[in-house]
Structure prediction request, 310 residues.
Amino acid sequence: MPLNRPALLLDASPRGVQDARRWVVDTCRAIGRDDLVECAELGVSELVTNALLHGRPPIQVRVRGTAEHPRVEIRDASQEPPELPRPSEPDDDVLLTFGRGLAIVARCSDAWGADVDAAGKIVWFVPAAEIQAGDGAEGIITGVERRAPEPPIDPVTIRLEGVPVPMFLGLAHHFDELRREVRLLSLAARSVYPVAEDLVSVFSSVDDGVRSSAMRRQIEDALASDAPVVDIDLDIPRALVGPIARLIDLLDLADEFCHQQRLLSLARTAEQRRFQQWYLGEVVRQAQGEEPRRFSASGAHSTSQRSAAS
Prediction:
């Protein structure tokens, strides 16, 4: 599907606006959404111009979401969130007013907003079929603040043995991509995609638990020493075990939605799915008192001899 094409890297010049406009228009037509071309073209022009004036390179454009609800995203390296437009006066024709780029985006959108993360920000919009009257859609800004995780209550210690470092990094990347995708999809079309709302809720509750700062330090140490495999000790609140078990099922459901082209994050490969099921499954198993099982790329697992050797 065209919506799974890689992001387009833009020149930090007026040519970047032209390239983004042409690329988004071609994508809309390729997925049979000629009705969105006018608003998509106008909205992406304004967002790329805004990124050139106020953001930092690299600047990229891509289209995500679904064919029914495509979402145009502009990423740049600045973490400064956009300033939401002020309400217009009754006689204020926003489409003829210089410097009102985000107000124009609001008029061209069914939904729009910005998502700020450690790498910068994504400003996104869901093109409308026609330019809206009034102030248009209200902008939504997410990710500006992320509270530090608190020490776990009633912790359970999990030992993950034989974790392949490249697979773990791939898991972290997939989680980040899927979490952002379902969060923005739930904001843009919540009633149409209830699985997105379920995933948002579960992700928000388990993410700090399955990717703690201590665990990140262990991965960083492995990378610094070029170790291909690492053992990870992880303390999580016992209350997260249930949501993590639910996440295993929801990730399978998300894969099915991807295969049906109802979510446009790529479905996991068989290798990714096997590793993630082992990773999350170990948390559930060990919280129930079972011994660690070392990861095996072949799919065969052996019970740890740690307790027998001690």
About this structure: The first strand starts at residue 8 and ends at 10.
